[in-house]
Amino acid sequence: MSEPDDHFFVVDGRRWRRTDPALPEDVAAALRSHLGRGRNAVKQAKRSGDDEALAAARHRNSLAKHGLGERGPEWWERPEAERIADARQALTDLDAAAMPPETSHNARG
């Protein structure tokens, strides 16, 4: 088990939970990418005053943070396989949410 100092880091006096170190790097990198894009979407939605887009962006950020182990149950208290499965599910959900809507092709007649 990790030492308590391995669970958190401090920035400007505020304590933040670290990313779960057991996550495969490709999964963690993809979740961080979604988080970065989600943070950008929050800024854009705030700037435009789009409450619906803001809620959707915040939801995506929450999914990414949970997947990384930075929110939700403390990762060091859970079995590693369960944490990795949850991270992969969060990534699947985020990838699905990021897919552009299918375009319909009208038949000409």
Please tell me about this protein's structure:
With 109 residues, the chain is mostly helical. 56% of the residues lie in helices and 7% in strands. The chain has three helices and two strands. A two-stranded antiparallel ribbon has the order 1-2. Strand 1 (8-11) and strand 2 (14-17) form a beta hairpin. Helix 1 packs antiparallel against helix 2 (51-68) and helix 1 packs across helix 3.
Helix vs. strand class: mainly alpha
SSE string, helices as H and strands as E:
EEHHH
Helix content: 55-70%
Q: Could you tell me the radius of gyration in angstroms?
A: 17 Å
- Total beta-strand segments: 2
Largest sheet: 2 strands, antiparallel
Oligomer class: single chain
Instruction: Give the overall shape, derived from the CA principal axes.
Output: globular
Number of helices: 3
Regions with little confidence, pLDDT below 50 for 5+ residues? 103-109
Distance between the termini: 67 Å
Strand content: 5-15%
Strand neighbour order, sheet with most strands: 1-2
Average predicted confidence as pLDDT: 89
In summary, what is this structure?
The chain is mainly α and 109 residues long.
List the helices and strands and how they pair.
Elements: E1 8-11, E2 14-17, H1 25-48, H2 51-68, H3 80-98
Antiparallel strand pairs: 1-2
Task: Please give a handful of descriptors for the protein shown.
globular; mainly alpha; 2 strands; 109 residues; 3 helices; two-stranded antiparallel ribbon; disordered C terminus
